[in-house]
Design a protein that fits this description.
The chain is an alpha+beta fold. It has two domains: 130 residues, Creatinase/prolidase N-terminal domain (Creatine Amidinohydrolase, Chain A, domain 1, 3-Layer(aba) Sandwich); 260 residues, Creatinase/methionine aminopeptidase superfamily (Creatine Amidinohydrolase, Alpha-Beta Complex), CATH 3.90.230.10. The chain is 34% helix and 22% strand. It is built from ten helices and 19 strands. The strands form six sheets. A six-stranded mixed β-sheet has the order 4-3-2-1-5-6. Strands 7-8-9-19 form a four-stranded mixed β-sheet. Helix 7 crosses helix 8 and helix 9 packs antiparallel against helix 10.
Amino acid sequence: MGIFQERIKSFQNVLVDAEIEACLIQKPRNVYYFSGTGQPANLWIPAIGEPVLFVRRAFEMAKEETWMDSVYASGRFSDIINILLEKNLLPKPNQTLGAELDFISYKMLTKMKEDFGNVHLKNITGLLMEQRFTKSADEIHQIREAAKLWTKGHRAILETLEVGKKEYEIAASFEYAARSNGGDGTVWFHRWDAGLPGGGIVASGPNTWKVSGHAMTVTGVGMSPVFPWGASSRPVEKGDLVVADYGISKKSYHADMARTYCVGKASLEQKDLWKKLVEVHTAVIEQVKPGVTGSELYQTALNYAKKMNLERNFMGVEEQRGEYLGHSIGLELDEWPVIGPKMTHPLKENQIITIEPKFMVPGLGGVMVEDDILVTNDGHEIIGEVNHDLNEIT
């Protein structure tokens, strides 16, 4: 049994336990996760029985890419329902149909209710993300490959960063290095309203402590109020701290890392802030192993910040602080779960999380470090090869 078949079988067991008779999957990353193709399609997974792929466009390519036998060129619900009736796979009245209710549009939801009739609709996104949280050997390999591109981007920043360079020029050097070495050139998000210019953020000087409207805290201010985060046209100045926080995908699997640079020699205060951040980062990573919860990891970091008298500058500034420390990664950059006080699920082997503490001190600068951490059978492994130095560009 191949990896895609194993995923289907595992999710069918989940559906049985959740008393869901079948589910209709429409989100492209989830369709790929089970079928092996990212072509526009609807995937039907019954709790018991053979899955069916209904391809909306590029039928021949989808048929070549997928492992599945039951593949039809169809996009309309009416056609889907007729085929499912023939296969005796359609839920009966008052049974439960699973769908990604936090992803599909209201128009799609209304159409689904009309065409599938008297069934109960239930959101399955949580069930999907919980299964995707634990990675296969191939997924871990793909994330390792993506992380190698971060090293390329890091080296490009070291070569490009200098007084007078604009933030977007620094960002472009990173993005070119990643793309020219096989990166996808885009990142995918789970959140409906998330996005990053070029896949990441470059913020310098005062922009490292300005919190814009994005879910993250070191956001940068962007090129315009339309997209107010990411690199701006600000030229970097001597003495600036510069944060680069980038997600990189390769063959659709993501790595997510961040490092901090200083234009010129760092001051004693900047060095001390960075040293404290790395102390927090290291303490949290050392705690990662099976059985530990995200809330425990977050509390460890918060306790360190309090002891350092930096609580008001931890994960933001004053009232604009986030209660999180990281997240998972995979086919999307911001996968479930959020590593924070609400994550009570114990970590398991082969899950990958990010740890991304930051201190943001107005007038001094913002510092951030982020690594991707693989949970092993007895501990953890840092994925990536970039050191934890404060990179001084002199």
